[in-house]
Amino acid sequence: MKVTQAYRFALDPSPAQERALRSHAGAARFAWNWGLARCLERYEAERRWYSAIDLHKLWNMAKKTDPTLAWPGGTRTRNVLTKNRSATSTALCRTS
Prior knowledge:
Elements: H1 15-46, H2 52-65, H3 78-82, H4 85-92
């Protein structure tokens, strides 16, 4: 007989920690939406999807050339596009 046990945790961040959590969540959402927009634009134009590596390269180039992509306080948006490349290429670029 298999026994499954679950644990429930609750976060109780300080105001500074909550601001940091919200900043990181916002940066992740922004990066995801940016990548999704690039994928959809390419698919509409060429009927081809970006690979996760190509999308990562585009993101790095865009961060260097577009000042609106600079996040204050060192928030790391790159983790969204690089954390799980297989999930990025399948989930991000293959939505219809």
